[in-house]
Amino acid sequence: xxxxxxxxxxxxxxxxxxxxxxxxxxxxxxxxxxxxxxxxxxxxxxxxxxxxxxxxxxxxxxxxxxxxxxxxxxxxxxxxxxxxxxxxxxxxxxxxxxxxxxxxxxxxxxxxxxxxxxxxxxxxxxxxxxxxxxxxxxxxxxxxxxxxxxxxxxxxxxxxxxxxxxxxxxxxxxxxxxxxxxxxxxxxxxxxxxxxxxxxxxxxxxxxxxxxxxxxxxxxxxxxxxxxxxxxxxxxxxxxxxxxxxxxxxxxxxxxxxxxxxxxxxxxxxxxxxxxxxxxxxxxxxxxxxxxxxxxxxxxxxxxxxxxxxxxxxxxxxxxxxxxxxxxxxxxxxxxxxxxxxxxxxxxxxxxxxxxxxxxxxxxxxxx
Length: 368
Known about the structure:
Blueprint: H1 4-19, H2 24-34, H3 37-41, H4 45-50, H5 55-65, H6 70-79, E1 83-86, H7 94-97, E2 105-110, E3 119-123, H8 130-145, E4 149-152, H9 158-168, E5 173-176, H10 192-200, E6 204-207, H11 219-230, E7 233-236, H12 244-254, E8 258-261, H13 272-279, E9 283-284, H14 288-294, H15 314-322, E10 328-329, H16 330-337, H17 341-353, E11 357-361, E12 364-367
Parallel strand pairs: 3-4, 3-7, 4-5, 5-6, 7-8, 8-9
Antiparallel strand pairs: 1-2, 2-6, 10-12, 11-12
Helix pairs in contact: 1-6, 8-9, 11-12, 15-16, 16-17
């Protein structure tokens, strides 16, 4: 149960966060000098400089302080249904606390308990290929079945696919944002409904930035370090040579976490980054088992159901035998199987219900 003292502490953590420019080191200096953030908030210029937070931070704070009312800011936080946790809070993720740049303050919505679960970060290109989509969906599904939480950044592309795959598998997922997590600020707006689905399904949205923080380019590398710090390892599915996903992978290595990469075609720009990671020591990943083995979580394999499709009719067997990982149009399938086009279509429909095949668009099918 939250005490008055604890709430008062959170009020001023939030107020300083709204000022901006206060990270772990400056917070520690303020607490060391003043004992509480409430006393630091009303400190003089001379005392703030004596706390060694720097001239620029002191000037910025004094310019903004009088326009802000800490209690009012906190009541607005509560109205937005946004929680705030600090490093001494029981909900603060233990994995994240281990990294040297762990944020002092996190804002969260949803089920904060999953922040303490075992997780894998999944990142990749916004300009994904069909191959990248299928790989992400399959790997995230199997990781969820192995009772791991999927962490990603709610970005367009592979991030969104990873979150959605976790939800489809009835698993847990954490979205780390580089903006505020209030409804008005969730970014990108194209993924607003996905964010709401994450919350309604028992997932979590977190950010180190207070509500109303807009999308600023400089905030996203900071977001990436939180994703890498939260997870046991980072999986890169598709990434160009200059992708931000490689930043996340680099941070994971810096934090002594595992890096996994899915190999791709040498002619695909979206695979240049992942193939580079593999050449430089990332674990080549073809299945969830590769990740579980590297993380010493082999004991979780037993919770991954071995769902093997067994054709029940001659028509299903014929279709199953001609399908593979490359898309085939229904007309081509009918020709190869010598089935009536209507029969081929109805057979594919039944097999899709059983999750044996997938229509990847335009009546083109692949084997699952």
